[in-house]
Design goal:
By secondary structure, the chain is α/β, with parallel strands linked by helices. The chain has one domain: Acetylglutamate kinase-like (Carbamate kinase, 3-Layer(aba) Sandwich). The chain contains 11 helices and 7 strands. The chain has a 7-stranded mixed β-sheet, sandwiched between helices. The protein starts with 6 loop residues before the first strand and ends in a 5-residue tail after the last strand. About 2% of the residues have low confidence.
């Protein structure tokens, strides 16, 4: 890795990967986001994507206009949609001469020392090969993200797993918002911020801002700088890496 380059974990939420009606994947978003990530890779950064969207993709394939309430139905949507999600990622990154790799993880995989080490070794080899790993919760056998987090917590755990420099949580709002709707540029006390932020979330998202704050607490405590950005605004990743004040920052608490 070049001296200026960093290892980045990018979490893409359902709200930025689906169309406004939430009944299909938004190809224009995939086109733009893959181009931005490819530019980061060309600049020398190592990029890993934690991606939601499998349930929404499955809903489209199965003709479901609304997110199902039953766990088994959501798991079925994820099973159908995951292959469609990866097919789209592979096509988009191939346009930039990059390969992608799929890893489906559960929290149990990261809690087990053997599986934790195996996952990290696999990811290290993918980075050396200039492959972009795409990680999602294994929703067909696990329930944590389907019920609680929309991959927010998983992205924090993955950032610690690969010893990332930065974690970017891309969502459909401009950052942590105070009760008046203004962006909070930096959060120093996550407990205080939890009492201030508005609890709203998108129709297809699971955790809203609360789980993003929880993810930020986990990652920043482990030495990872976290930033929440609006994933529908172009070039914010580039701006954040250049030091511009965008979104909401959570500084790493230790190295």
């Amino acid at each position: 890795m070049a001296a200026h380059a960093q290892r980045l974990v990018l979490k893409f939420g359902s709200g930025i990967l689906t169309n406004p009606r939430g009944n299909n994947l938004d190809r224009r978003q995939f086109t733009r986001l893959s181009a931005e990530v490819a530019a980061l890779v060309r600049a020398g950064h190592e990029c890993l994507i934690v991606s939601s969207g499998a349930v929404a993709a499955g809903m489209s394939a199965l003709g479901m206009p609304e997110r199902p309430r039953e766990l088994a139905a959501r798991q079925a949507c994820a099973a159908v949609g995951q292959s469609r999600l990866m097919e789209l990622y592979a096509k988009m990154f191939a346009a930039h001469d990059l390969n992608v790799a799929q890893l489906l993880l559960t929290h149990g995989d990261l809690d087990s020392r053997t599986r934790h080490d195996n996952a990290r070794n696999t990811l290290e080899q993918l980075f050396r090969s200039r492959v972009v790993p795409i990680i999602n919760e294994n929703d067909s056998v696990a329930v944590e993200e389907l019920n609680f987090g929309d991959n927010d917590r998983l992205s924090a755990e993955v950032a610690l797993l690969v010893r990332a420099h930065r974690l970017f949580l891309l969502t459909s709002v401009d950052g942590v918002l105070d009760p008046e709707g203004h962006v909070v540029p930096e959060v120093r006390d996550i407990k205080t911020a939890s009492g201030l932020v508005r609890p709203d979330k998108g129709r297809l998202s699971v955790g809203g801002m609360t789980t993003k704050l929880q993810a930020a607490a986990i990652a920043s405590a482990g030495g990872v700088r976290v930033q929440i950005l609006n994933g529908r605004t172009p070039d914010l990743l580039k701006a954040a890496l250049a030091g511009h004040k965008v979104g909401t920052v959570f500084r790493a608490q230790r190295t």
